[in-house]
């Protein structure tokens, strides 16, 4: 029962402050995820960023003009003393209560939710400075000292808002590439009803609908081709410029461009379940994501505000009673401590770096699901690699052509195999087409199951298949190489046209970037292990090709999960890289799961990071971005903590014994500037991640 009554804390995705998940707390549901906010300003900034950005720009502009005017009249008085004071009051009122209204609202919502945030500090501190100055203006006889501090309150409010504007612009820049991606989604689809295409809004599509995609149109949603053939430009998602062949059975991604003929697509995912919908959700989660390292900052921030208020009150009363300083100076001691300790930098230290780091990754087709994945990526020391579909292509491709005239061998074999539906035949045809070879018509085609195929090409009988099927009508000198290819797990088919021409080896080819990726993992100090369900010989062959020293063969999906657990028991921080299907248990068990593969599988992956470009080198980039982001987070937290540790004692009066109470003629102004500079430095340091290039 006690556990059920415990207060659950959420984190404001804008300012990073902790918020109690109470019924009256400010909250909003964004794409199916509920977020809690410490103030309505943060809520508006998150739910309506464009409008809030425009409003914030107006506030900062107005505050800047009024604050500059206040500074001029404060330090270069043009009017008589009393008249000057009243003009300053009139200029300060809109800054305090209009430009600074968001701080009062934020403080109200925080106190109502029985929590505290930086708005409480700003509201209390600036109100103290403004209130004292207002009283000194209308009733100068109340205080025994001269001096107004409208400038301090105005500068603090304007500088903090300027810092928030900078932070807001940072978020806009970080998510700009993703927003542009989402803007490419089509708005209507041609649903086939009784063979006729009817335009309907994409939002009204349901799973199972059959849609027509005409040449030049964007695919409205994720699906599978059921009719027609074409090429799709998927560069918006994969970054690859080459169009991808689409034919019956091929998967298509919503938002990709049909650059060839008409195709018919059956919808397999709609709305948020599509690739683009999933990207949106992942980015939203990353934006509000909290890394474990931030728990320390959250715990500190929880008690930080009331502690600082106590310190400020104690310092003000202490100097007033024990130090004999005037009431005006005591008030300024309180104001200085409260303002200089605003935990703005502390609150945004982790979210700012996470946002920019995940934004950088998203531009590269690397989707990070949250802060925990970032921290795990930074601490990984062991990488487990699935073989099929991760190190290798995961499909049958031509890996070698043996013989004299290789183009002729491939052309003849491709011509005969074009009449076959066998996987090996498809691989040969695809290679011939990709090389631009013109396939000839085939007559008298005969398929001999288990042996091969034959047919007449330009009046000549061509056979493709096993050695005994093709025959031994000549010598070609490739026997040794063919035997070697077969020992490596490849299928070798022989080709003859009256006489033996050569052979074609078909197998699951190693990805072009696999060797580079594994080499770079080694250079990063990572231990790399390959896992596969294949036999020992095939596993060793692939491992040797890509430079993996350790591998485990003959594993079932459950065995891969056990291997992850075994390494974790040894104290290893394990990353599992797989295709997210058979590898799902291991991906979920690992400290970090990296799911590699494009297409609709993105919506189904269990990994903490999704690599949509189907490139193993992107896994290396993800780990490097994780390390870089964690470095920024640690730098930001070090600055935020160090800043408060050093400057709070100064604001509390550490310099009074050395320089007298005169330091408080400028310390409130310095406090506001230093606090804003602290936040700007954290944001600026995080922004450097936008320029970070993993390779």
Number of helices: 24
**Oligomeric status:** single chain
Q: Which parts are unreliable, with pLDDT below 50 for 5 consecutive residues or more?
A: 1-6, 286-291, 598-605
Number of strands: 26
Strand order of the largest sheet: 14-26-25-24-15-22-23
The CATH architecture of one domain comes to 3-Layer(aba) Sandwich
Strand content: 15-25%
What is the percent of helical residues? 40-55%
Shape: elongated
The third-level CATH topology of one domain is: Calcium-transporting ATPase, cytoplasmic domain N
Mean pLDDT: 79
Main β-sheet description: 7 strands, mixed
Distance between the termini: 53 Å
CATH superfamily of one domain: Calcium-transporting ATPase, cytoplasmic domain N
Assign the structural class, choosing from mainly alpha, mainly beta, alpha/beta, alpha+beta, or little secondary structure: alpha+beta
Q: Return the CATH class of one domain.
A: Alpha Beta
Radius of gyration in whole Å, from Cα? 34 Å
